[in-house]
Amino acid sequence: METFKISELAKEFDITTRSIRFYEDMGLLAPTRNGTTRIYQRRDKIRLKLILRGKRLGFSLAEIRELFDLYDTDQSDNQLNQMLIIIDEKQAVLQQQLNDINVVMNELTAARQRCLQAMNK
């Protein structure tokens, strides 16, 4: 079974070992120990990747933990429905942010064009 040291994961994901330990303290990662050395499994590596992706997408650590908790349980219909609600809410927020970004980008493009036209007069 493939295992990883904290320094290997930190280097691969370009984050600090302190960040990884923080995620462990928050209950998002659960490495085994060999003395004082943390031994991370493939599952921990995948979860770390999902944590970082979730953060980039605007998920809070609490939301990420909730999704992990829902995934780690027996996944009854109720739990899956809750996961769908969380996903739908986040998609709606991100879609609104994307719409807002597109509006601002269009406004900036128009302002740039006006500046260029004014310079050419």
From TrEMBL:
Keywords in alphabetical order: DNA-binding
Coiled-coil region(s): none
Pfam families for the chain: MerR_1
MF-aspect GO terms: DNA binding; DNA-binding transcription factor activity
Designated name of the protein: MerR family DNA-binding transcriptional regulator
Domain HTH merR-type, first and last residues per copy: 3-70
InterPro entries from the UniProt entry: DNA-bd_dom_put_sf, MerR-type_HTH_dom, MerR_fam
PANTHER family: HTH-TYPE TRANSCRIPTIONAL REGULATOR YFMP, REDOX-CYCLING DRUG-SENSING TRANSCRIPTIONAL ACTIVATOR SOXR
Keyword DNA-binding applies: yes
